[in-house]
Amino acid sequence: MRPIAELSIEERSSVRFILVDIDDTLTVGGKLPSASYDGLWQLRDRGYIVIPVTGRPAGWCDMICRQWPVGGVVGENGAFAFHLEGEHLVATHHPEAPEPRVNAQRLREIAEEVFESVPGTRWASDQFARLFDVAIDFREEEPRLSLADAERIKSIFEAHGATAKISSIHVNAWFGSYDKVSMAEIFLYERFAVDVSHPDANRTVLFCGDSPNDEPMFRAFELSVAVANIVEFAPAMRSLPRYVTTQSHASGFRELADLLIGRTDSPL
Prior knowledge:
It contains nine helices and 13 strands. It is about 35% helix and about 20% strand. It has helices at about 10-15, 35-45, 60-65, 105-115, 145-160, 180-190, 200, 215-220, 250-260, and strands at about 1-5, 15-20, 50, 75, 80-85, 90-95, 120-125, 135, 165, 170-175, 205-210, 225, 245. The longest helix has 14 residues, at about 105-115. The radius of gyration is 18 Å and the shape is globular. The protein is α/β, with parallel strands linked by helices. The two termini are about 30 Å apart. The protein has a six-stranded parallel sheet. It has a four-stranded antiparallel sheet with strand order 7-8-10-9, with helices on one face. The protein has two domains: about 1-95 and about 180-260, 3-Layer(aba) Sandwich (Rossmann fold); about 105-175, Hypothetical Protein Ta0175, Chain: A, domain 2.
C-alpha cells in the first residue's frame, strides 16, 4: 500500500465516481461526523458521483439514498442497489440474490449455532431492517470480541454452505453468489453506462474502504484506497488497496476527499 499523497494528478483527474464503505470509513465510533458529511456534499458539488457500498441493511439504505448527497447505494454486501428517480426509490436486485428472506429461517438456524459456539455473539441491532442476509455483531456494541472470534463465526456459516464476510463490526452471511463488487459493476453499467471491465472506464472509479469484506472492491478497481485503520486487518487479507491514508476512520475519508476537492479542474 502506497501513501495517499502518491495518488497522481493524472489519477485524480480521471475520477468521476467514488464508491465508499460506511462503517469505520465514513464513520468513527459509530457516528457520521460533520467532516465526512460535509465532504460528501462538497464532492457532490464538485461533480463527483458518490455511491456508498455497504453491508448495512435495506432499511438504512433507503434512508441513505433519500437523505445523503449520493448517486445511489449498494447494500447488504451486494444484494441490491437503490437509487432515486425524482422522488421515487428504484431498487436493482443482484441476479444471483434469492428472493428477499427466502433463506431467512435457514440462516437464523445457523446463527443460533453461532450463538451457542462463540460466547458473546448476538444479532446485530440492525437485523430487523435486513432483507437478504443476517448480521452477527462481534464489536459494534459491547461485549467487543476479537478478530479470532469473527473468524470462528465466519467458519460456522461457511461450513453450512453460506457466504460469510467480516466487516469492521459485523460478520454478514447469506446464500447466493453475489458480493459488493459485482453489484457495483451492475449498477454502474445499468445506471451510468460505465463498463469497468475496460481500463479507461475502470479508472473513472475510485473505491475507499477499510476491512476484509472490501477485498473484492480493492481487487477490482485500480484506484483503491483504504483508511489507515485497515492495518488491523491487513495481515489476514489477500487483496490490499493500492493506496492508504495517513488518518484513520472518518478522518481518513476526509483526507481523501480534500485531496480530490483540492484539484483545480472539474471531474465532469
